[in-house]
Amino acid sequence: MQLKSLVAILPFFLAVAATPVQQATCSNGRTTANAQCCVWFDVLDDIQENLFDGGECGEEVHESLRLTFHDAIGFSELLKLQGKFGGGGADGSIMHFSDIETAFPANNGVDDIVDAQRPFAIKHQVSFGDFIQFAGAVGVSNCPGAPRLEFLAGRSNVTKPSPPDLVPEPQDSVVKILARMADATFSPNELVALLASHSVAAQDHVDPIIHGSPFDSTPGLFDTQFYIETLLQGDVIPGPDGLQVGEVQSPLQGELRLQSDGALARHPITACEWQSFVNDQSRMATKFRAAMSKMAILGQKRSALIDCSDVIPVPKPNAKTPSLPAGKTMHDIEKSCLIKPFPTLSADPGPETSVNPVPPS
Ligand code: CA
Ligand code: CA
C-alpha cells in the first residue's frame, strides 16, 4: 500500500477508535456494554438478596467460590490426548450431573451449594456453567479487599459429567497436586494465587465436629492473613476428635489448616510465591484475578463468550494491615523461601487470637 493511501485511511481508523462504546440500559437504569448482559443484573439482585443474605461475605460466598473451582477443574489435557473425554471444565457439569460429581470424595459437601444455586439459574434461564462463575464473582465481591473478577457469559448448557479423580484433595502430596494442576494447564504460581480464595473460606467436612472453622482468622476479609497464618508453626489440634484426614495442626484455636495448604506454603517450588503475598495485598489480588479469569473459562473458548464484567460489583477495599495474630511473634514464622527475606510483621494487640466458626445461615 502506498504511503499516501495509508495516510488517507488513518483518520478513518482514528474516528472509529474514538467512537464511544454503546451502552445498553437494563433494569433500574443500570448500564452495561452489551445488551445481552442485562439478564445478569437481575440475577445479581436476586442472589445478593436471597443467596448471599443481603450482600454478606459469609458461608454461601465461601461455598460459591469453592464451587467455581470444583466445576472448572474437571478438565484434563492428558485424558484429551488419550482420546478420552477430558471434562468440559467450567461447564456447569457439577450442577447438571450433581448425582455423579458430588459423589466424588473430593466434592464432599458441595451438593449443598449446588442445590442452593440451581433454582436461581433455572429461574433466570442462564446456563449452569455461567451461573456458577457469576455467583463466585459476585460472592467474592462482597468480601472487602477482593479484586473485581472478570465475568464472561455464554457457556453452553450441553455437556457431560466430569471424569472422576480430577479435583485435588487436601491429603494429596504437593507433587500430586502440582501435577494435577499442570494437567489442567495451571502453573504452581497460579495455584498459589488461586488459593487466595482460602482467605475467605471455612471447612465443614474435613473435620465435621468443628463445622465452619476458617482457614485464616479473617474469613470475612479477602486479605493476606491466609498466607501469613499458614506459615505460623502449627501447635493446635482444633477439634475435640483429633486430626482428621487432610488436616494438620493449626496455629490458632478455632482455625483449621489443610494439609495441602501447610505443605504448599513450605514446599521449595511454591514457598517464595507464597511468601510474596504475605504483605502485598495488591499483588495477591492481581494474581488471583488473573488466575480466576483463566479458571473461569477452562474448557471454553474465550472468543465465543461475551464480556459482562461490568455487571460485577466493585468490592470495598480491605483496610486491615497484614499482621501476626495477637500472641504470635516473628519466631513463630516457619520461613520457607530461602532466597528472600521475610517481611517484618507486627502482632495485633491483646490476648492470644482465637477464631470463631463462620456461622451457618
Ligand atoms: Ca465441570
Ligand atoms: Ca481472610
Automatic annotation (TrEMBL):
Domain of life of the native organism: Eukaryota
One Gene Ontology cellular component: extracellular region
Cofactor(s) the protein needs: Ca(2+); heme b
GO biological process: cellular response to oxidative stress; hydrogen peroxide catabolic process; response to reactive oxygen species
Subcellular location: Secreted
Cofactor note: Binds 2 calcium ions per subunit.
Region feature Disordered, mapped onto this chain: 342-361
UniProt GO MF annotations: heme binding; metal ion binding; peroxidase activity
Signal peptide residues on this chain, from the entry's feature table: 1-18
The family this protein is said to belong to: Belongs to the peroxidase family. Ligninase subfamily.
Protein name: Peroxidase
Source organism: Dendrothele bispora (strain CBS 962.96)
